[in-house]
Design a protein that fits this description.
heterodimer; A: about 280 residues; mainly alpha; MetI-like fold; B: about 300 residues; flat; disordered C terminus; transport (chain A); phosphate transport (chain A); Phosphate transport system permease protein PstA (chain A); cell membrane (chain A); transmembrane (chain A)
Amino acid sequence: MNRLTIRSLKNALMMLLLGVATLTVLLPLVMIFVHIVKMGISSVSPDFFTQIPAPPGESGGGMANGLVGSAILIVLAGGLGIPVGIFGAMYLVEYGGSRISSGIRFAADVLSGVPSIITGMVAYTLMVVPMKGFSALAGAVALALIMIPIVLRTTEEQLKMVPDTLREASLALGVPLWRTSLRVTLRSALKGVLTGILLAVARIAGETAPLLFTALGNQFWSKKLTEPIAALPLQIFNFAISPYDDWHRLAWAGALVLVTLMFVLSLTARFLGRNKYQS
Amino acid sequence: MKLPKGLNGDLLFKGITVLFAFSILAIIALMILEMADQSLPAIRKFGWSFVGGSDWDAVQGIFGALPYIWGTVVSSILALLLATPLGVGTAIFITEIAPKRFGGVVASLVELLAAIPSVIYGLWGVLVMAPWLQQTVQPYLIDHFGFLPFFQGAPYGVSMMAAVIILMIMVLPIITSITKEVLQAVPQNQREAAIALGATRWEMIRMAVLPYGRSGILGAVILGLGRAVGETMAVTMVIGNTPQISLSLLSPGYTMPSVIANEFNEATSALHSAALMEIGLILLAVTLIINVLARLLLWSMTRKTAVGGAK
């Protein structure tokens, strides 16, 4: 064989290997997805959305308290985290010198790599210990800490893309900078900012570890924000490691609902995410 | 919008944005300080023997973190060794080989993989993958490769092997999507030059594309390592949670995040929770170092492109 043949054979072999690698990466997605649908679909019933879990060993029941609990936690965490992220991003875009902005941007990237269980431990020492009890509020603080760097970075990217001419036009008309930022800059970037918020919500909606010792979970309805509260991912975890078949079924149903929610959120984010100033 | 008299809107706005922007730095500082403060009792009592000790006995108040450190290191490194060629290969496939639209579809699917919460990987791992490993894969390995120390023991299903596979699946999307971005930043004229010299497609990738993106790809892999080291739920559900140091991939293990997840709520003594806090502190320090390193590598890559200018 001459050198050319060897080279093109090698080329063909590598192309094949790269294709095989891609298939191997996609395989788990397909397998996990098929399993969740297969196992979950039969247990997603009206009961799932309206009942609280049945006691161990009894069949039936649902995860209504977990769904409501997750919604409450997400709203609280968003209320705490979204303003911090958005205003922080405005600082980077409108005021920050390049050194300081890079530093904060770097810190945000590093913060988003901190394991979420650490965030839970910190929220425990900051909230649970002083308040002398696990609570929805502590869970929301833990989740907000995860949201802040995501919202800040995505908002910043979006605000940066707003053309300076828009700001200049507004400032030239005598509008103060703070109103320009809120009414002109933020408004032009609103879709992109929403995308970031949706992605952050999708991320925290599935977080389990930071809730283990903050929100703790609750088999019943929680009535106060200062009490432990149920959350869908926590319920999936507890039911998955339980020995009961009925609880396994509920866990699969919960997984199906959660994954559907994730996919809807990320598809919506993707759809909204086409920035009008992007080239 | 109208402000009350005497209130300077711009000053107020600047104040709020400064406060919130710097809160990121404050959060990181607070995390380190709180964790260090809370783990002081354990640090004082055990010193360095905490890291080297392998006994963990809450009743007698003896705490050594070595089995957890071992489990974390082994599971993450093995997962990374498996995931790196697959993830980088997929990224190359997406950017260099697949037609643009098809590559985009593959990239979106990989991103969906990243959107699946860790607890769902754990659910699938413990109810589907672990039984399959126990009944099919592990007996086969014991029968045919049982002479190797890595495949000795009984097939439990939940094991170091299960943790490695789950972690591999979970770090794949990170490595793939970041490597993809890195490769997309490689200037087109690099490729054209290689092709013009008569390189095959693979030679072009190996000689013109990969070397250019090397630091960025390394950054992507290290970022994947950070994820693997800190991953909690999925690993806790499949690794078996037994604090032991074993060469066998079939035996159950334990990791630093898992022991925190399992014991933090039930820590009976102040020393026990301080020991768990110290494990958390070590974990925080390691992930901070890993992330800083990875970000620096990725930044050096993007800066190079910015200087090179051509795209």
